[in-house]
What does this fold into?
Amino acid sequence: MGDMPVETEIARNLGLINVSIVEEFVSEARLRAAELDYMIHDHHELLPILQKHCFFSVVE
It folds into this structure.
């Protein structure tokens, strides 16, 4: 996770997914410019992304 363009570039070069949470410290426009894989507004949005990429599975 990162919000600076260089962090996004590093993650991309390493083959990682880019996720950033929109907060008052970093504008949504700045995050869009970084071309993230995912831009979320709440930490609750993170689990489905991690599950989609097989980082966690749901146990029932």
Observations:
- The mean pLDDT is 82.
- Residues 5-52 form one domain.
